[in-house]
Amino acid sequence: MRRAVVAGVACLLVGGFGYGAADVVDLAPGILTYDGAPVDPPTPPGSPSATPSWAPLPSAAPAASTTPGTSASTSTAPPPTTVGLTAALARLAADPWLGPSVGISVRDGLTGEELYAVDPATARAPASTLKVLSAFAVTEHLDLDARMTTRVVTGDDPTQVVLVAGGDTLLGDGASDASLVAGRAGIATLADEVARSLTEREVGPVTLRVDATYAAGPRYPTTWKKEDVAAGFTQSVSMLDLVSQRAEGGRAAPAVPEAGVAKALATALTARGHATTVLPLTGQGAPAPAGATELGAVESATYGQHLGVALERSDNALTENLVRQAMVAEGQPAADPGGPARFVVATLAEAGVPTAGLRLLDTSGLSPGQTVTATALADVLTLATTNAEPELRRALASLPVAGLSGSLADRYRSKETRAVAGIPRAKTGTLRGISSLAGTTVDADGRLLAFVILADRVPPSAGTLGARAALDRFVTALTLCGCP
Fold it and tell me: From its phi and psi, is residue 446 left (phi > 0), alpha (psi between -120 and 50) or beta?
């Protein structure tokens, strides 16, 4: 009988996003959840031997508690045994819809001990579960409570102003709103401050240029597919952008988002009595003059909140942005195309996470040809669950919650899986032929568990949706099982 169950929901205030609902549920391609080639729908199996089969799921018991935000895990709850987990999970792990290449690691969340595994050390394509590794690098090198500042300063002459990028790509068009993550810093508020400063300095019309040199790197990781960008499935990695400009499936984002921000600010300044002409941005622009006077500034939501959006919404460009900022915080330039991936691997190695088999080409999981191991992902998850890395634990609280949020919002709704809705939380990963989950759950005895499942040879007859259903059945069985 379930003795402790809770739907712990990470409540991020991410109002202001104009993203389509289909993106949020990781079904239709889109910037929030899209990991590469469009997902393929399941088709009827071609032969009886291809028909999916799985072990009966344990019966759901009444939840002892369904109060959001209450911990369901207790240190006194017994961990499941390997024998019990094998009996409950082995047939589900071999589901034909997952294909012949499956890596699994189930860990005790309190001790980190591996309790059940299937070929966890073999390197496989991770898709967007790679973001779990990148999140660790971000939490190791950035203060999650710090904020990004977007500034306007004086330029090379009294009639020039410089818009200085500070990393915030979730700027709002209107007034700053402290209750939001997307739109916490607003262009209208910035324009108000700058206009007041210009009036006080008795400056009328101005020219505006952009300094986008902070954490500057390639517009796109070189291994991203151009057609994905053109289709609006991801966007350029910048340090200055508006929420309203971000890509959506079917609508590409501007190649130079800084130009759109400058135009919005110029329009706002002109409306406030200071006619503003925008100078064209060449490359990343030139740095603002040393000792320039600040005319206005707005602060973003915290790094922790931005990382929460990147994980919950599976935002590729935002993940790349945060890793580049983490590099700069450690004194490393972000200009080298392969630098961010090497930075993540180096951070893992320093923490003792095994890096054998890791081949990272980006930090978001969008590039084809990448590999990680279930072991590495599980090691990182247990750094959080065992509280060895408290900041990572805090960040991973933003992972999508089964049946409730982010890329798991429409999953765990079937008759087979709905009993555990609100309990597992995990990072999804989806590419054509690849389906994965990495996250945490609480079993029927109240024991915290971490799990990783990588399937990178999903058969075409099953399709992405079939593989996702198989993954969800596996996690459901794990969650409902006390497995003594």
Answer: left
